[in-house]
Structure formats: C-alpha cells, structure tokens
Amino acid sequence: MRGGRKKNFIRLLACVLLLALGMSLGACAPRMKPARTADGNNLFRLGFSGTPDSLNPYAAGNEEAAAVLSLLYDTLFARDLETGEYGASLCREWTVTDGAARGGRLWKLTLAQDAYWHDGELVTASDVEFSLQSMKDFSNLYSCPDCEFIDATGIAVEDDTHLAFIAWGPDAAVLECLSHVPIVPRHIWNGVSGVEYGSSGVPRDYVRGGDALRGVEPTARNMVGSGLYTWGGYKNGVCTLKLNPRYWNGGSAAPTVELRFGCADPAQLLRTRQLDACWDMPGSSYEQLGGEGGYALSAGTAGELYTLIFRLDSVSGSRGLLASRELRAAMDYALDHAGLMNRAYGGGIPAMGLLSPYSEWNYEAALSSPRGYSPESARWLLDNAGFTDPDGDGIRSSPEGKDLSFALVYSDAVPAWGYAAEEIRRSLADVGIEIVLSPTAPEKLVEDAVSGDFELLLSGIACYNDPFYALGMFFWNQGDNASASGGLRGTVQTGWNNTGYQNGEYDALYEQMLSAEPAVRRDLTARLGEILYADAAAIPIGFAASYQACSAAWMGLRPDRGAGLFFTPEILRQQLQTMTAGGKR
User: What's the sign of the alpha-carbon dihedral 227, 229, 230, 231?
Assistant: First the structure.
C-alpha cells in the first residue's frame, strides 16, 4: 500500500519519533597512535555487531548498509550534528512558496556547482531528478512514505544546477525525506541491460526495473557516488573505503576507513587494538571498558524509544477509565524505568520525556524516571482519585465499579518485548492495576494501532526524526487527525492521532511549530513536550542505549551538544570530518 495518511501513520508508529541524543562520558590518556595502512596512511577501523543485508543502494535495507552508503553518497540536505536541524548539503540554496497546484508548495533548489561524482562527472539536476524518482519507486532502504509528499514525476529541471518540484505537507517532512535519499549518478544506474528506460532515465516497468536495479552486484564501477569516500571493496565482512581527494565539502583525518561487520566481542577487539571504535556493543562490554585503555566512551540512543501509549477515548469498555490523568500519572510513578530497561533490554537510558532535542539532553537527569519511581505516590494518586479495592482482590475499581484491568498489546517478534511487558504487568499489579498481556504479530500490531483497536500499546519508535512526526501522534485537529475508530471525520479517513488525546492549546502550538523559524520552532517544540508530559498523554519508558567506544588514537568527540560517536548513518560523515588523529586535524 503506497501513499495516503495510513502509510505515513504506519511509518510514524514503526519508525519515527525524537531526535538522536547522546552524552560523552569523558576520555582518558594516554593518546595512542592510529594504525597505518601498507602505504602509511592513517587507518580508521569501525566495528559493527550486525552485517549489511546488501550494499547496493537499491537493495540495502538496514542500518549497517546505510552506514556504508552514507559515506559514498551525498544527500540534498543533512541534519546538523550539533543542533539536530536540517541544513544544506548537495542543495546549497532553496526556496519554498505557496500557491502551487492542489494546495502543494513549490520547492526551488540550487545545487552545489563544485560537486563531482567519483568518476569525475559533474553532479547535475538530472541526477537529482533520476534519484528522487528511482529511489522512491525501487529502493528498499529509502522508499519511505515521506517521499509521498513529493511529486517526483513532475520535477522540472531548469539547467545543471536548478530544479523545482511540488510537495505537500509540512516543510519539515520534505526536508526529513530528502536528508535520507541518496543522490546516485544517472549515467551509472540507467544502464542496466534488458530494461526499457523513460525520458528521465527511470525504468518504465516497475517490477522488472526494480528487480534489475536491486540485482546489481556492488563493484568499483557502479558504486560511484559524490561522497567523502570512494569504494575500495567488500570482502570477508570488511568494507574498505578510500578518502575522496576531490570531495567538494571538506576532508577527513582518516584517508582509509574499514567498516568491519559481525564483530562478536567488540570490547576485546578494542582492547587488542583490532578496532579503533565500535558503533554499538552490549551494555556489559561497555561497562568492562570503562576507565581503561584510553578509550572515550559514549552512551546514546541509537535504537528505539519505548513508550506506553494509551487509548484515551471512551468508545467502549474500560477505555474511558484511561481518560483519567491521575490514573495515567500513577502508572508512570509505578514503573521503575531504569530497572525495566535494564531487565528487559539489557541496558538503556530512561526517557526524560516524549521529546528531548539534542540541546536539551541531560544524561544525569535521565538516570531516573521523570516523575521518580514511587509506588507510594502512585497509590496516593489512585486513592485520591477514588480508585480503591473494596473487595480486597488486589485489583482497584473506579467509583462506578469498573476494574482497573487493561489489555497491553505488544509485538511478539522479539523476546525483549515480552520481558518489558511482563515488567510493566508486575509493576502495575503492585499498585492494584491489572494488565492482561496480549502479544501479537507485528503486522497485526500495526493494524490495531491504525484502527485504534487497543487499550495500552507498547511501542518502540526509532529515534532521530523531526518533531513533526514525534508530536504528530497527539495532534487532534478537530478530529481530522483522529484514527479510524476515533469518531468524527476520523471514521472516513485514517489519521495519525490513535490515542484520542485532545488539547486545543497543543493543537494551536503544533500548527505554529510546523512553519516557524528554527529558534522559535525549538521553543514551541519544548513547550509541546511539556504539555504532553503534564497531561500524561503517554509514558516514555526509555531509550534502547547503543553504547559506543573510541580509542584515544582517534578523539575528536564533540564535548558539546550532540556529543558521541555515530548515532545514525546520516551523521557518520560529519563525525569522521570532526574527529582528529594523533592530535592533528
């Protein structure tokens, strides 16, 4: 199913919310020397526990693959390491104006005039046109629903550096999409034999064309990008990249980078200097490395934000009980966020709130629940709201006699979800709230979320996306954004607000946030997060922490906002450019 609000909502539930966060925990001397290649160049070796499913940009589908591609290919826009906001990349200047057909907005882009492909060809607007069309239709990794905001078939190419297109939806959604879509060379990817191509270079036949593009094996000839590094080969789980000496947008202290995949014991590899840094590692390995060997350690959210989402409306049954803010706040008090994350997910960072921008992240403050773990406070709130246990069966009832018993829906795909659900059940039982566990297949979970067919939903939502998505789940908009069973206009068209949360002040500020200037937007975003948390619209449980380590031979970790190593593929290039080697830039 392509297009429409429903697909965007599925994207919202499955893989969007919050910005990438991190906090450097310090570094220790002495400084070690970087490893060297046979020709004497500095060698930077970055380890991953996982492996790429493919390195073909059309067939790739996971984070490990995206890490490689982020160094080979540029995007039109890029998220800034420090602020988390979007800025220029291949697109150097752009304007957005109202008045386009069918309520869309006209985007005019001016490309960098000094950007070249690794084979020496100039990057042109025709390459961008080809990339936006082909990536939208054929790429596994980048054909995200956000691309539906862009009319890729109606791109107008003026000359080599200027193009325009129509897009719908908030500017933030378009920028977010274009910060992920790699720009690939048309002259490389429209030459697959046996395929008929249209005027823009994109295959005419959707099935045959997609199979042809995704079937290409990566080689030095076809892995041509405009990025910081060039293709050096992939063998035995190691991808080698060489610095692009003509890169148009800066340099790096590492002339050679090896991305090593399938590392079973990254801590040991770091100790024996077989790795210089690790993208992610188990919490136990991270703790073992603490304070030894001259490593800079960093803990950050490179995974998911785990959130307990309520169905707040009173459509049927016990759902109306969840409309009580006191009940929801009591549930938050009753959950030991830190303990839950450690026991269920093997380590994590408790969440401060539903939204924590780079500039607001405070590692120390996140080590405890926002409200503080206090079953006593939970019981006090419940008692004062009239939720008591008159028959002594351990389950509280409302003043009207309805038991505080709720079904918790969660994915059965990963054991950790079951562990977390059991922790929630046990913790809430301790204050008199019964939780009935309801594991379900991921596909059914999405269906239930979209239809609003749940009472409590344990949701794991990937980080690093714009507040447009992070906050959209709670935008009621007089019912226009209501989910299918939410009543009003939501019965006609599925919206994003599957919770039933309604707040007029929130809606007004959300609309302002979508088109505000960056500084104002940050302030509005913070205020929206405060409103949500005050209303207990959902319980942010914690972040799946991905632990990082970097040897003292390669420091350059940013001590300010956005500190850390490589939290997302899209900022990997920026991190390599800011790192130092042997004390030299």
Answer: negative
- Read off the DSSP letter of residue 360: G
Q: What share of the chain is helix, strand, coil (3-state, %, to 5)?
A: 35, 20, 45
Between the alpha carbon of residue 334 and those of residues 15, 128, 439, 442, the distances in Å are 27, 51, 22, 27
Domain boundaries, the chain: 29-188+218-299+547-578, 304-544
Q: Is 583 exposed, middle or buried (0-12, 13-18, 19+ CB in 10 A)?
A: exposed
| Angle subtended at Cα 309 by Cα 465 and Cα 399, rounded to the nearest 5 degrees | 155
CA–CA dist 14, 445 (Å, integer): 10
Structure-token pair, residue 426:
């046990």
- Model confidence pLDDT, tens digit, residues 353-392: 676 544 344 444 554 455 778 999 999 999 999 999 999 9
Tokens (6 digits) for 191: 């030459």
CATH superfamily of 29-188+218-299+547-578: Periplasmic binding protein-like II (3.40.190.10)
Q: What is the largest CA-CA distance in the chain?
A: 80
Residues 57, 59, 61: CA angle, nearest 5 degrees: 90
Separation of alpha carbons 74 and 183, rounded Å: 6
What pLDDT does residue 560 have?
Answer: 33
Strand order across the beta sheet in which 162-167 lies: 91-97, 105-111, 162-167, 156-159
Degrees, nearest 5: CA angle 283-20-574:
100
Cβ burial 251-290 (10 Å sphere, 16+ → b, else e) = ebbbbbbbbbbebeebbebbbeeebbbbbbbbbebbeebe
Q: Which residues pair with 278 in a beta bridge?
A: 47, 549
**Under-70 pLDDT residues of the chain:** 1-32, 82-84, 99, 101-102, 142-148, 282-284, 286-287, 290-304, 314-319, 347, 352-353, 355-370, 461-467, 469-470, 483-495, 545-547, 555-567, 581-585
Q: Quote the CATH superfamily of domain 304-544.
A: Dipeptide-binding Protein; Domain 3 (3.10.105.10)
Residues 433 and 356: beta-carbon distance below 8 Å: no
60-89 pLDDT, tens digit per residue, is 988 899 999 999 999 999 987 766 678 899
Q: How far apart are CA 330 and CA 432, in angstroms?
A: 11
CA-nearest of 492, 510, 493 to 501 is 510
Distance, in Å, from the CA atom of 239 to the CA atom of 231, rounded to the nearest integer, reads: 8
- What does residue 114 show for φ and ψ, rounded to 5 degrees? -120, 20
Q: Which residues contact 415 (CB under 8 A, 6 or more apart)?
A: none
What pLDDT digit, counting tens, does each position of 498-527 carry? 788 889 999 999 988 877 777 788 788 888
